[in-house]
Amino acid sequence: MEKEHNLVPEDKLWKRFLYRIIYRSDTKLGQLFDIILLSLILLSTFIIMMESVPKLDKRFHLTFVVLEWIISLFFTVEYMMRIAVVRNKKNYIFSFFGVIDFLALVPFYLSFFFPVTKYFLIFRMLRMLRIFRIFNLLDFMNDGYLIVRALKNSSRKIYIFLLFLIIFSVIVGSLMFMVEGGRPGFETIPQSIYWAVVTVTTVGYGDVSPITPMGKFFAVILMLAGYSIIAVPTGIVTAEMRNKRQNLEKICEQCGNEDIDDDARYCKQCGKKLA
Amino acid sequence: MEKEHNLVPEDKLWKRFLYRIIYRSDTKLGQLFDIILLSLILLSTFIIMMESVPKLDKRFHLTFVVLEWIISLFFTVEYMMRIAVVRNKKNYIFSFFGVIDFLALVPFYLSFFFPVTKYFLIFRMLRMLRIFRIFNLLDFMNDGYLIVRALKNSSRKIYIFLLFLIIFSVIVGSLMFMVEGGRPGFETIPQSIYWAVVTVTTVGYGDVSPITPMGKFFAVILMLAGYSIIAVPTGIVTAEMRNKRQNLEKICEQCGNEDIDDDARYCKQCGKKLA
Amino acid sequence: MEKEHNLVPEDKLWKRFLYRIIYRSDTKLGQLFDIILLSLILLSTFIIMMESVPKLDKRFHLTFVVLEWIISLFFTVEYMMRIAVVRNKKNYIFSFFGVIDFLALVPFYLSFFFPVTKYFLIFRMLRMLRIFRIFNLLDFMNDGYLIVRALKNSSRKIYIFLLFLIIFSVIVGSLMFMVEGGRPGFETIPQSIYWAVVTVTTVGYGDVSPITPMGKFFAVILMLAGYSIIAVPTGIVTAEMRNKRQNLEKICEQCGNEDIDDDARYCKQCGKKLA
Amino acid sequence: MEKEHNLVPEDKLWKRFLYRIIYRSDTKLGQLFDIILLSLILLSTFIIMMESVPKLDKRFHLTFVVLEWIISLFFTVEYMMRIAVVRNKKNYIFSFFGVIDFLALVPFYLSFFFPVTKYFLIFRMLRMLRIFRIFNLLDFMNDGYLIVRALKNSSRKIYIFLLFLIIFSVIVGSLMFMVEGGRPGFETIPQSIYWAVVTVTTVGYGDVSPITPMGKFFAVILMLAGYSIIAVPTGIVTAEMRNKRQNLEKICEQCGNEDIDDDARYCKQCGKKLA
Hints:
CATH class of the largest domain in chain A: Mainly Alpha
Organism (chains A, B, C, D): Chryseobacterium populi
Oligomer: homotetramer
Protein name (chains A, B, C, D): Ion transport protein
Transmembrane segments (chains A, B, C, D): 29-48, 60-80, 92-113, 158-179, 217-239
CATH architecture of the largest domain in chain A: Orthogonal Bundle
GO molecular function, one term (chains A, B, C, D): voltage-gated potassium channel activity
Membrane topology (chains A, B, C, D): Multi-pass membrane protein
């Protein structure tokens, strides 16, 4: 993700020094910086949550505001320094983490004009995704990429599945509206669609549930259908995950076998030693 | 699906012209037509939903009725033209999309006699399944067929599973009727079966839940059973999906066998060494 | 299942004749008998359900009682004939379906002494499992056996999983009792265990739900754990099902390859023609 | 688990005798001891549960207290004997079961000072995990290890998944707080996060559910997302389980590699042709 702008800038010494601290974690100072960063992200998230609790906000309002100011200023300075010390500035600014770093600041300054936007600061939590890089947890990062890649590869199938599911829910909801029509929770078609989604995903709040025997019979059929349908996304992702796990780019030169496990040293088809 | 009647009719020029616009999307006009069609489907669905909301219906009743008339007339003309310009008329009329196109019209005309049928217009949403063909999203179509095929191939196992599940729910419901008998939600056996299905599918509305300690004990056992049973449909579809996934690109040159595993070196149908 | 006693008895003609009608469905009369049987099972189940609805029972009480008598007498005669015409009587009586046929009768006669046992008649539904044999649905029967076998083979793992789950629920329930202790729904440890099971299986009736912030925090952790745990039974059954699907006893004589698909005619490892 | 200290001590006869009874179950006395132990664990768990029910506690308080004393003393003596007769005392004390045996005693003695800790005695249930060893259920033990191993191997991926899920829930909860803000159940951000977790895990108590149309629309999107996300942990564990399942009986004679796929003909570690 940060490969492109990972190059050590050759220009000035202070830039190189800061670069190492901010972008790397192979020095004592760099690690300290990362840990402070993580703590501030967590603290910031915690404060936003607590501010929303009237009882706590009344008591600690000033503390919360002051801490928010300090953290936001720290993040602002950090963001500017990140841009300053990196060589390929554009690459950083438009990278995944670059955008998140920016979004983590905007709500603070916006909240002077639109107070409600303050709560968008919660997006700061996304910065935590850096956690694996920070602690050099390479295995965790690899596994994380694996999951993301499996999801990406099956995303097309999942979109199709969701389209089916939405059409299905709209139709079922409308039918139920005709069956239970007017009864509490089924007053309108959108309401009934809401019920259909709550049911088919097996969430089942119970704020809306069928009342007439006919409606209950109908709901039973929907539930049994939903119970069978739930297998589809699981099947998609499982097949993809299993697939990704085995053949990460490896191939036997002698027989072309592509089914090579991560820890294999010899091809299990022809016995050829693997490179 | 529309292969059979896909042939360009050789008769008249205007027929050929309209055919291209309506059935294909390889011309500017054809694409425009498709986009207008999709928008009208969405608009129609939206209007039906909004009509069911008393507050909105009161305010915009006339607008809704007029729009519905316009869209339905457009769909009627389109349906007749689809029949007119296609060669093999029977094939279109009884094809999957031909039937849906017809069903999307019927409720409108029926609603003059039986007003309640108006809401069946929601089935128009099914026309949206054409969306992938319209935007030439071949990959999406292939993935869609894959899902449908996997479901079709495992449908027999899923029917058996559902039969088991229904028998199971009926028996459990009856037992629970004896345990909780008469208490709210368990007044009759059908009611108790409704509860059993709600529980075993893990929907759990909570409109009916066990009250006596004995009933709760019984429910706990049912839930644990349901939790284990949920694995069955998933297992079925996953195994099928994994199976279908593998052998999509490979094919045997000698006998045309398409069912070739990733690690196969010889065709299992004719024994030919695979490339 | 009924293999052992499937042999045509050589003794008397009427026995042989009845045997064919009752146990087989390769004659017109045999098929008629089977269809009548199925209809009576369905009718019987339906009557028991309807009898539990006070409104219907009041109106049709006599009809229900008479029909129940007729059906039960028919089943009794049928059961005695099944024993009479079969050669290996013991084998039938203690076979899976023999026991079910017997259990389908007992509650009727017991209900003269203990009226409540009447509802156990619902177990008659289990006789419906014969449906696949009756209609000669061989593919369905095979798929059914496959599912049953996959469940049997993974039953040991599922028992272990359930033991884990029960211990887990008991401990979580007890901890929650200490956290929420005394609040409605958490008055006793068994009550709290009931809540834990409802939560971890994702049923979530909502008749009991955490009230204090501490309890909610605790519940969130439990739900996230349950969400991860749900993968285990699915994984077990899926692995088993996938396994069962491919290698049903087949093996290549030349290379010993056991991974042979149902439709393979040549070994995909060495190209040897399969027997 | 108890391999290290499994060695028969050579010192004194009474030690060797007791060792066989306590640690092994290959003698009549040893089996009797194990069954008594299991019964007392179950009885103890049962008593703790029943004590929490005010009605039962009032009636049987003395019985419960006396039984608890007897069982706890028995467990104390047993724990001390376990240490006395084993050779490598440290190994036992810090082994998995050694720690559990200790934890099963502590709450009893602590409860003299802090009565509430009494309920921690429920942890005694964990001692039941010994059940498979006791009855020499080797197959069960192997399957148990298999599940534990599959979970351990996929634990890293599951942690990552949980981190994603937590960040996701916090963000969704905060957004919902802005949408439904102030309405019952969404008074604060932590409350809204609680709702988000209840929804995304498909538990759906219904103690909190969206009220405004906007909130319901938002909830529908979250549910559909959750329905797709649920596939991820299942996919992870299934892939891992399938993997572990295959290579259990096979082993390479040359290098002892145990990770051998069903269709492998050569060891992938040393290239040796497999038998």
